[in-house]
Amino acid sequence: LSSDDAQAIRVHNLKVDINLGTRSYNRLRRAFPSLSNLHSVYRLQCRIASLSGIQPKLFDCCINSCCCFTGDLSREQQCPYCSEPRLGTNNQPRRQFSYLPIIPRLVSFFHNKNLAEKMQYRAKYPSGNGPLEDVFDGAHYRRLRQVHVTIGSETLPHKFFSHPTDIAIGLSTDGFCPFKRRKQTC
């Protein structure tokens, strides 16, 4: 890494760690002339994105957040819920959803020796029939370890979590509403 890249990473980490907003960051740059050489927030974010190698995927969505134009809606030119047009007068999407794919992020964990070691927790955990102390002691996880992976109608020769680099991901929510106009949560 160049010294400029290392500084950009340190500045970005500090900005995120202390939850420093864009307006405050810009005021800090103006208030202290010695900090005027710091990148603008836009340049800083672009540089960090470039260094991370993780590129967001953009999906067009309704201006009113009714839907995302993917799957069956990928060819629609107006929202099926509120009839708002997908594109503006400049023929550009009126709103987009930025999605960061999880696989490149997980792969990057294995490029960091410290994180790669932490990612081995599941593989090294002594799961057993004793008291429930960890998610890896749970019946569902233990049952999955006995099941061959099946994709479509093809059963593969390996079982779930049979390789030490396999990753178990859990998701827990108390309900969320992905679109503003919906009355119910997921």
Features:
alpha+beta; 186 residues; two-stranded antiparallel ribbon; single chain; 33% helix; 7 helices; 10% strand
Distance between the termini: 43 Å
What's the story with the biggest beta sheet?
Answer: 2 strands, antiparallel
- If you compute it from the alpha carbons, what radius of gyration comes out, rounded to the nearest whole angstrom? 23 Å
The DSSP helix count reads 7
Structural class: alpha+beta
Strand content: 5-15%
Total beta strand runs: 4
Could you give the order of the helices and strands? Answer: HHHEEHHHHEE
- Lateral arrangement of strands in the main beta sheet: 1-2
Helix content: 25-40%
Shape: flat
The mean pLDDT is 88
Topology:
Layout: H1 3-17, H2 22-31, H3 41-52, E1 57-60, E2 96-99, H4 102-109, H5 113-118, H6 121-124, H7 139-144, E3 148-151, E4 154-159
Polypeptide structure, described:
By secondary structure, this protein is α+β, with helices and mostly antiparallel strands. Helices cover 33% and strands 10% of the residues. The chain contains seven helices and four strands. It has a two-stranded antiparallel sheet. Strands 3-4 form a two-stranded antiparallel ribbon. Strand 3 and strand 4 form a beta hairpin. It is flat and about 60 Å long. The mean pLDDT is 88.
How do you describe this structure in short?
This protein has 186 residues and is an alpha+beta fold. The chain has helices spanning 3-17, 22-31, 41-52, 102-109, 113-118, 121-124, 139-144, and strands spanning 57-60, 96-99, 148-151, 154-159.
